Write the structure tokens for this entry.
Amino acid sequence: MHRIVGLAACRDLGRPGVCSWTRGPGCSGRPAVHLRQCAGPARPFTAEPRPGVCGRKVVFAGQKHRLLSSRAGADKPTGSSGGQPDISVVGSPDPVTWIRCKIIMYLIQLYFKLDVSSEEFDRGIKQALVHVSNVMSRGRYHELWGLLSHEMLEYVETRCQSLNRAQRQQLAVTMDDIIFVFPEEVSVVFEEDGRRFCFISTRFWFLSTYQGPDDPEGTQIFKVAPHEDGSPQRKIATAVYEFRRELTKGASPDWKVTAVWHWHWKLAE
């Protein structure tokens, strides 16, 4: 198996809090994805890989309802909050990582006709975060079956069950809560049997009402102004999701979530 990887690997891989992953030959029907034993550890949606075509739809595999469309207001699901606090930028993600990932994304579009830099794709992965986080917050893990791998589904359920009810509910994210999205690792995997897979690891910055230690990935880049109306102070939290799609000719165009990690899980450690 050969893997073409962006030199900018995810900053959290190999660091406590986010699990590392290994990939290799030997799994039937998909590349081998094994979760290593570590302290911490990102859905499937469908997109036609036809660059230049407007109005593409993105849907979760196995879901009958569309979670993304080009309609105005489609990215504001029911329950989105309004009146966001003032947020100032105090830092920036690694620019070298961003440039390297963008170059690899361009090459993926050039060679595989798959646009992973489009606004449509960006909106799709945001809605993946919204969908998965809300399902986890309700404890309805069975609704993620088919969206996450079996190993990841077990991992997510174990981590969520270590939280109390209030902490689990704070996992929920709305589209309005999301502040920034940053690709941390982009790679193409070539299996020995000729199959090809695209992996994209993405970090999300979003507002949360969780009560706990500050997320260093959030505080070093954004600062939230304190509320003056006495409402609960919101914090910047992060989550890392890894998405996978098979690039083999004739394969399903579905994307799947192969890794999930939320800063909120630190509360249970």
